[in-house]
Write a structure and sequence with these properties.
Layout: H1 3-10, E1 18-21, H2 30-39, H3 50-60, E2 64-68, H4 73-86, E3 91-96, H5 99-109, E4 113-117, E5 123-126, H6 132-144, E6 168-172, H7 178-187, E7 191-194, H8 208-216, H9 220-223, E8 224-227, H10 229-234, E9 242-247, H11 250-256, H12 261-272
Helix pairs in contact: 3-4, 4-5, 5-6
The protein binds flavin mononucleotide.
Residues 22-25, 27, 45, 66, 68, 95, 117, 120-123, 172-175, 193-197 line the site of flavin mononucleotide.
């Protein structure tokens, strides 16, 4: 069965080409999930607490769960095992940013869907990454001939995977219109994921100041940056392997200008305290 047939079998309500709304922590909440689900597919995002999440997966039996940036390969495998035990019909999606991550995930978790995330993506991703143009075909080839890459686990002798063990590939990162979607399909994806594009949606749980900045930003390579500054200011502790792409704002300019981190955090919190009016 080809990837598009598999998608239609696993999620009979979808239309193809598949367009998926990315999980965006604290932003893609119920309003956006409902609007997007009307157009296509159900998902839940992955919270950090396995013990809190498994009973919810067992109770609500989502069509799919989406895993991203696990603390270790072993923890990813544990999430997958417990999810399958709690809800065998739930499909497992894993977002990856490199060939090695893709092979590790496929060997250890056998995901139904691999979301291939290129470095143009908004939000978090690998510090050392690649754009979708080289990454998608390389992952697609590596899955067909999985020798090399990965962590050197079993089955690395270059044996091709059985077709049903090969995950469906979706593309994420820098796609905001039909041209980007078509390009991703040409590269070998069976569907696409939109994150940043949906920050412009009414249903996005972000301040209007933040939303206005997203809409104002043009020439993205110049007006956005991959950095750890925003995590430092928010106190979110991501591993050294990850940073995040965000709009260049006053906090970033002050940080690289040498402002004391505590003072910068105070200004950030002051802005956040303005609620929906803030974030500009
Ligand atoms: C504001 C924002 C928050 C995000 N939060 C998450 C998240 O909580 N979990 C996750 O797996 N990916 C998250 N992502 C990354 C998306 O899954 C996806 O890779 C990315 O949005 C795709 O690139 P695009 O933003 O250019 O469309 C986030 C992205 C953005 C823009």
């Amino acid at each position: 069965m080809g990837p598009v047939q598999r998608l239609k079998k696993d999620y009979p309500w979808i239309k193809t080409p598949l367009v998926v709304g990315a999980p965006m922590r604290l932003i893609a909440l119920a309003d956006m999930a409902v609007e997007i689900s009307r157009a296509g597919i159900g998902f839940i995002n992955w919270g950090a607490s396995l013990t809190a999440s498994i009973p919810l997966i067992a109770a609500y039996r989502p069509a799919a769960v989406w895993f991203f940036a696990p603390s270790s390969l072993a923890s990813l495998a544990e999430w997958a095992t417990q999810t399958r035990a709690a809800s065998p019909e739930t499909k497992i999606w894993v977002q990856v940013g490199s060939v090695a991550e893709a092979l590790d995930a496929v060997r250890n978790v056998k995901p139904d869907v691999l979301v291939v995330q290129g470095t143009d993506a908004g939000g978090h991703g690998l510090v050392r990454g690649a754009s979708l143009i080289p990454l998608l075909p390389e992952i697609s080839d590596a899955l067909r001939h999985p020798g090399g890459g990965g962590d050197g686990g079993e089955g690395e002798e270059g044996e091709a995977l059985k077709q049903d063990d090969t995950p469906v590939l979706l593309a994420a990162g820098g796609i905001s219109d039909a041209r980007g979607a078509c390009a991703a399909l040409t590269l070998g994806a069976s569907g696409i994921v939109l994150g940043t594009r949906l920050l412009a949606a009414t249903e996005a749980n972000i301040s209007r100041g933040y939303q206005a900045e997203i809409l104002r930003a043009q020439d993205g390579g110049q007006t956005t940056v991959r950095t750890k500054v925003y995590d430092q200011l928010r106190g979110t502790n991501w591993a050294e392997t990850h940073n995040a792409r965000g709009v260049v704002n006053r906090s970033y300019v002050d940080a690289v200008g040498g402002m004391d981190e505590e003072e910068n955090r105070r200004l950030y919190e002051e802005e956040m305290g303005k609620g929906m009016r803030g974030g500009g």
